[in-house]
Amino acid sequence: MSKLDEMKNSLDRIEERELAPECVSEKSEMMMELDKLKRTFECEVENAEKQRNQLIGKQETLTDAEQLVEALTVLIGKGNVLLSDAKADPSSYASTAELFEHPLKDAQMLIETASTKGIDLSQLNDMVRDAKCLHTQLVRRKDLWREFVIQRDMTLDQLEVIEGPLREITRKPVRPSNEVLLDLDELKMVQADVQELRQKAAELRCLSEELDPLESVYADVRFMDTDIEQTQQQLGDIMQLMDTELNEESVIMGSLQDMENDFHQLEDKVPSATNNEQLSNVNITLAIIIGCQLFHAQLA
């Protein structure tokens, strides 16, 4: 019980019949004054309590803001180191970006709450701006790395598919020219696929540049370029060899056809041969033609 209440109770216990008339009026005025003082006091206490709560709330907000500034400062430092690390683990882009999400969300909510209370959090505002910028970069790196892995694996799979026909054709034994022509047509299709691979390798190179300075992606692209270059070189060598052999066979077959025509002409002349010299020439020519036919049979 407050002093005002005690004073009011003391006055209230005084019987008015025991007071002089002028004192009754004075008692009434004193009671009214005490009520007024009590209301004023209670209002002051309420205002003081309100100010106290506001001060406590402000201090809690400033403390929370300070903790968030410290947390974001650490994350920004970690993120900057990761983005500039040439030997970084690319999977760290995603995990590090996730670390920013809760502090940024809490900071944004705290800033909005503080603004309604008139609390200045300019330092936290600046830190949130920097953290959001870095978070965006990390998310971008994460997406680029994921795209790089997808494109790299698809290109490697396609390269493996292309190398299959090459291995199969190089292992084939000697075969008729019509089969060689079929293989050559297949290799021409493979050649078009290799050109497509070179385009994909160029796209991978662009992705690796966006992931700069990450060394692992540059290494992957170099290995990819080397594999494609070797495959293209092997393909070109095989096609050139097959084309050369087909041309040589065509020349030989043309020569054999000419010899066969000559043979038929000689056959027509044999009955009219009348002396030994003519017969000798015919025999020599026949021997040459037979030898060529045997050679042709071996080629077939």
TrEMBL record:
Occurrences of domain Nuclear anchorage protein 1 spectrin-like repeat (ranges): 134-247
Q: Which Pfam families does this one have?
A: Spectrin_Anc-1 (PF24611)
Alphabetized, the UniProt keywords read: Coiled coil
Q: Which InterPro entries match?
A: Spectrin_Anc-1_3 (IPR057134)
Chain coiled-coil ranges: 31-65
Name by which UniProt lists this protein: Nuclear anchorage protein 1 (inferred by orthology to a C. elegans protein)
Species for this entry? Anisakis simplex
